[in-house]
Amino acid sequence: MIVVFEGIDGVGKTTQASLLSERLTQEGQRVVVTGPFLTEFGGAIRTLYLSGVGSRLHPSAEALILASAATQMASELVAATGTDVVILDRFVYSTLVYQGIGRDVGLTTVRQYFAAALDMCYPDVVIWLDVPPEIALARVAEASRDRLDKMPLDYHITAREGYARLARENPEFVRVDGTLSAEGVHSEIWAQITD
Question: 20 to 30 Å CA-CA from 129: which of 2, 77, 162, 165?
Fold first, then answer.
């Protein structure tokens, strides 16, 4: 099973991925938690993407480097054996939202960029943690905000609307109210993946 956590920054994706991993491990499942930026190559891409250089990239170039990080991650997952559940902290959907919709690259173009990654690693369920941007951004500590967190509020509102659109168009999407307590969100997620 492949489970993806998506949503704007500050919604609790990493926290919920960790909680789900812990619970599945307690249930006897072999779990891997990863994401496009959590591989060695992806970490280097993330550094570039969030740097001053990254802020000057053309939107299509942004989408392409993000797709390359996802493709490398997917190829590493295919090479790994002995895993029951893969939990991804972001995947193609964030690029569809931020670059495809928010930066006008286009959904079809972004899907083309991610074709190889999706062929290797198609999710069974996408958990969209939905939180109003004002609340999500308040959760991100000022000291840890990156250039994207500092974008105008409209940017984050557009991203949330983009996730809502993807949820309507993709049957693997499940919306979870991320304003609940961490335990409440986890209970909702557990109910969704064990249903």
Answer: 77
